[in-house]
């Protein structure tokens, strides 16, 4: 059997190039060993390996000094350029590790929960470039499958299969109504009440909508969704206009929406909101730092919070 040439020999290594350049620069094997931080036999082995592999004399010994052979002299500029480029790459990677550079792609389905956390992270790591996109939960999960996202804020019953994550919070799924709506004085409503109402919901890929409609199916109810929209802000505007009532996590509602929550008498209507990431990405510096930031209280000045180790 013929072994492919590329596999029959070990690749030229950076260790060999460093040893070779150091010997030429310092003029001796012992000085090169000190410069590189390895033993003298290691330097000798690197040089012997190169000369043996390429059947070429690379160094000329004269007494205690060592000089480059003609074959090596012509290559020295390229070797030094390659080592300089390697140092640049190592420096850039080190900056990524210490979070003085890098980027993080985030998808979020509920801005009221995600934006405070993203803002907190940005205040801690201002040099990280953030790309944040508002999407429905299923659309965020699709991005994970394609490798187009690093962190996702998603709603569901549990952490999606194939991902790791942390529970950020859980909230009741409620009707969102204007404060002057006839149902606003009720402590809660039944599924029978809900079945009669014109509803405004998020798109079909929304995690909250899927949980709500799953519970409605179990209850034997088919909700009357008159309009599906891509953002909570749009839904809140139409609720205030009197077009219908909304379905939302209670945690989404705020005073500025002009809506109040009306609980539905079903204990299954609980939405869990998770921050998730791919298992293989858990130790990437930016992802690891974002995970650590989830444990920090919001509103604490960056200087008062220790950086993750």
From TrEMBL:
Gene3D superfamilies: 3.40.190.290, Winged helix-like DNA-binding domain superfamily/Winged helix DNA-binding domain. It comes from the Bacteria. Coiled coil: none annotated. InterPro entries: HTH-type_LysR_regulators, LysR_HTH_N, LysR_subst-bd, WH-like_DNA-bd_sf, WH_DNA-bd_sf. Residues 12-69 form the HTH lysR-type domain. The keyword Transcription regulation applies. Keywords: DNA-binding, Transcription, Transcription regulation. Belongs to the LysR transcriptional regulatory family. This is Transcriptional regulator, LysR family. It comes from Roseibium denhamense.
